Amino acid sequence: MQKVKPIRDKEKINEMRAVLKRQNYRDYILFEFGIHSGLRISDLLQLKVKDVKNTYHITLTEKKTGKFKEFDINERVEKQVSDYIVGMEDEEYLFQSRKGENKPIGRVQAYRILRKAADQIGLKKIGTHTLRKTYGYWHYKRNKDVALLQRIFNHSSPSITLEYIGISQEEINKSTREFYI
Q: What's the rounded Cα separation, in Å, for the pair 57 and 51?
């Protein structure tokens, strides 16, 4: 199995946004919510309208770990989601499948959506976990707080978190080569 990577280039993030927005607004919101929440795809796909309606504070039980999780989404994403859910019922899944009545898209379909958009802009090593890793990468780049990110992701050590978000030995070496007092 090929290891997926975060999207480290903001221009590529913007290109993904544009492709997904043209493709399907639902897919665009999935991407935005994913890169701004750090949730696993299994947790994203289980969200219902009532979980996000009129709030920026989200609570859920993680599907993988069974742990209770609370987090906030930023104001911009909250506004995008609010606009997206207009006319939807509280019990509807946020990312509905076109197959069946009120069923979320599956992990495989989410992968296909992201893979198709990534192919259009020339991104490789992309999958559903890319959303979570992209969140982690940019959170770390902005805050430089690996301990906080380790806690958000529930990892056992900072080294696991750094590897997970793609802070490679190459980047560490480059920062050392460029360091001068």
A: 9
Residue 98 among the catalytic residues: no
Q: Does 164 participate in catalysis according to the annotation?
A: yes
- Token readout for 168 is 């490679």
Neighbours of 20 (CB within 10 A): 22
Tokens of 139: 């959170």
Q: With a cut of 70, which residues of the chain have pLDDT below it?
A: 1-2, 169-170
Domains of the chain: 10-177 (1.10.443.10)
pLDDT tens readout for residues 123-152: 999 999 999 999 999 999 999 899 999 999
Q: How far is CA 30 from CA 16, 81, 105, in A?
A: 12, 9, 11
pTM, 2 dp: 0.90
Q: Which of these is catalytic: 5, 28, 36, 40?
A: 40
Query: Would residue 112 show up in a list of annotated catalytic residues for this protein?
Result: no
Determine the Cα–Cα distance for residues 20 and 59; give it in Å rounded to an integer: 26
Whole-number Å distance between alpha carbons of 126 and 119? 9
Each residue's pLDDT tens digit, 80-103: 999 999 999 999 999 999 887 899
DSSP string of 69-115? Answer: EEEE--HHHHHHHHHHTTT--TTSBTTB-SSSSS-BPPHHHHHHHHH
Q: Which of 48, 129, 133, 139 is catalytic?
A: 129
